[in-house]
Amino acid sequence: MIRFNRRTLAAALAAVGLVCAAGGAAAQERTFKFALQNPKGHPLEMGAQKFAELVAAKSGGKMAVKVFAGGTLGGDAQNVSALQGGTIEFVQLNSGILASQVKDFEVFDLPFLFANAKEADAIVDGPVGQKLHAKLAEKGIVGLAYVELGFRNITNSKKAINTVEDIAGLKLRVIPNAINVDWVKALGANPTPMAFPEVYAGLEQKAIDGQENPPSVILANKFFEVQKHLAVTNHQYNPQSIIFSKKIWDTLSEGERKVLADAAKEASLYQRKVNRDKSADDVQELQKAGMQVTQFSAAEQAKLRDKLKPVIDKHGAAIPATLAEVQAELAKLRK
């Protein structure tokens, strides 16, 4: 029979307390599915894998996250629906896509909202970003953290884009929502809403002339194989949300929820750093792969902003309180 003196018993209880505080002891054996659109090796996939590692470590190996990259579990709309139904636990997607659930998320799709990554971080990590994620709960979604896709640029297979006028007439794939359709129309181009897993085939088969995405997406998805020209326009910044099924969340213990929330926050910082460190290198890699890269002059960038201002005004008017809050926070940062 094992005998405990007071000192031994106190030490044992303290050890148990530490384990419980860490969340590991409260965790059950669970495996979660994590769906995203970009392929293995993309910074978003790397962030998802980092998240999986952190969950395993923080739960003492009891909780596992299996990453399904490259749209293997379907497009964004399918993934969100499955998450709400509880058949997929985690989804990572452009935050603006969540406007179909909570309209205020449209703010993240407004062109030229952020001048740089520092501004974006301040908004998504601050009161605005947290308030928006909190609004998802009534839609069966738990918002955990923001990662990033980054600043978007335009590619096409037909011609170099040196001026705003060069964009006119191109048939461009856009994320399926009204803001993206409208800004492409405002430039005289033809918007084609399309789920991301279909984009490569659409480009290859010439159903569309081009698309717009950050360099990391263009490189990781090998769009350079079917696109000749890249114009660095930085016309839109995409934060991405890591979201979780509320249906499943409600079955978890407080310790398990803490493991997931803490891991998501830590992984988000890792992912953003990886993405930003790779950005300039990705453009160089695209050039090496044969893409012709053009950079808008300051004058053309200003012209592009002016062309898109009516789109910003139109859609901003539908979410006045959220846009005003974002603009007020940005004004403080820019002083």
TrEMBL record:
Belongs to the bacterial solute-binding protein 7 family. Keywords: Signal, Transport. The keyword Transport applies. It holds the Pfam family DctP. This is TRAP transporter substrate-binding protein. Residues 1-27 form the signal peptide. The keyword Secreted does not apply. Gene3D superfamilies: Bacterial extracellular solute-binding protein, family 7 (3.40.190.170).
